[in-house]
Amino acid sequence: MNKIAYSAFIAFVASLLTLVSVNALSESERDDRDDAGLESITLAELAEHDSAESCWKAVKRHQKVTPWRQ
Question: Which of 5, 13, 55, 69 is exposed most, by the fewest CB atoms within 10 A?
Answer without folding.
Answer: 69
